[in-house]
CASP8 and FADD-like apoptosis regulator isoform X4 (Panthera pardus), 235 residues
Amino acid sequence: MQSKPLGICLIIDCIGNDTEFLRDTFTSLGYEVQYFLYLRVDSIIQILRQVACMPQHQDYDSFVCVLVSRGGSHSVFGVDQTQPGFPLDQIRRMFMGDACPSLLGKPKLFFIQNYVVSEGQLDSSSFLEVDGPAVNNVESKARQPVPCTIHREADFLWSLCTADVSLLERSSSSPSLYLKCLSQKLWQERRRPLLELHIELNSSVYDWNSKVSAKERYYVWLQHTLRKKLILSCK
């Protein structure tokens, strides 16, 4: 990757204690960081849509998104819990090749920390208010596919960490172990492939989980369709 900056790094933190160090990390790596705190679901959707349509992607070599929120098992709530939330798979679709052609063939890296709220903890209204129009608009505004041999889902790295929401109540001022380890790895070992760093991140999380109760554990899932080895180095 040669562009300056390397790309946009979008950080959305709806918790407020997890991402300042990541903002510094990705700035030092050469990204243009856009940073948002305490957003409602409709604002999260709006910002994701705006960023997906940014013309600057055409001149940049990659894209990063860091999202921290309370949520369900497959959705994020933002700062409110009075609606069903925004499905995580919809976020990925907004940046696929047919919806965001300017990022086709370029690495798209997602790091998500989701503090999961069980259904029993949600207000009953959460299941009555359906945020359908906002979600549907994302699909309706998707751009038409362009003729290309690169698959629309190529070059994604999707790293999702879940933890019980009660972890915030026990240590509200402590950052996510997952995001803290991610930042440390990127700072200290910049010349190593990102997938290797993620394996070591998983090992750190595993070591933590072996020492704590079930409610204090983090669970990390990694999916990727990267076609090349990716190294994030300092500018």
Remarks:
- The longest helix spans residues 194-209.
